[in-house]
Specification:
alpha+beta, 448 residues, 10 helices, 3 domains, eight-stranded mixed barrel
Amino acid sequence: MKKLSKRNLARIVAFLAAGLCALALFTGMALVKAGEYERKTEAMYEQNLAQANEYLSDIGDVILKGIYSNSAADQSSMCADVWMNAYEAKNAISALPLADVDMEQCYTFLSKTAEYARAAQKSISGGKTIDDAAHKTFLEIKSKTASLAKDFEKLQNIYLSSGQKISGGIDFSFEKPKTIATSSATGEGLKTLNKNLSDAPKLIYDGPYSDTVQNKNAKMLQNEAKIDVKKATEIAENFLKKHPGTLSYAGKEKGNIPAYRFTKGNAYVLVSIAGGKVISFNTNEQPSKTAVSQKKCLQAAAEYLKSAGYLNMQCDYYELANHIYVMNFHYVEGDVNCYTDLIKIKLNAQNGKVCGMDASGYLSNHTRRNLDFKLSAAQAQAGVSGYLRTKAIKKALIPTPAGSEKLCYEYRCVSPEGNELLVFIDADTGKQADLLILQITENGVLTK
């Protein structure tokens, strides 16, 4: 047998080495692509899981507003929203890797919910309103979708706390990949989905304002003279005198209220070019605990506003998050609550000191007004749903989506299920102007 020459042997070794390098490179690229695919798939599943919870939760919120409204437009809008959210929830759930779990009952319920809402909307368009039977059915839908939303929220929490992958990851040993359906940590949780649907209702086919008040030009500053940077610097320095650091001018900001921006340490302040008013400031504080009560923080905020020249301000709504209170104050003229004239105050719940303010709502809306109510509170009461029990009545000025203002009676009501709602009845027409759900928790009082 002829021996290989050294040259040929070297060539063979070189070819083998090159082949191994190419194989290693190919394998590496395949692993990178597989990993990238895995991340994208996992992100998609995470989004679907979050959306399922969100759409199911939204169904309950829109139903609660719609069924206690005397407005045909609101009821029609509710039906449209229920229809859309039910189908979107079904799509999000069906996109999850649930092959080993029979979700047919869940899909059927969501499909029927969507179809029922659509049929109800057509009925309303034909001149009918939601009767007692439909009212009861929508409440049953609300209860069932709320249970489903909680189940999906539990699944989300499992993945957040355990670090498991919804897809189970790519198994390079070519074994059957795990899915959300077979994962030991979520198997029991998924069983409750169908269990919660076992008594699903049989559907019979019988065919406050913070974003609104700030997105406008400032009424208070329309006739005010413009100030220069030097004057604005004096105002900013005086305002931030208790904050450490050196004041620096950071340029102009356009926005709805043109302003000069200044920074000092970790704080910033905006001073309006017209009139030299402080629009907002923030210190970017990050307290580590809540040591001061809501009552004391409320007192501190009220005193702060009074010292800043904002009188007759009242706070009804607040929230505690990350050890910071955000309190919504509105102007009160006589006995009328002007929700349009809004100032937000931030307080550090660790030391009870003001750490932020936004007066853009107040500056945008505060002006002289005619506050004459044509109807009495008793007359306007006829516009409140007969399903609700009224706890309290106030006079209110609220913003409209078009940017104007409307005088209303505010009825704080309780539904038969114990939910608290605010119903605003137009003081001129007696028709419903708005309906909000009160959210009362240990961390605050808000509306939605």
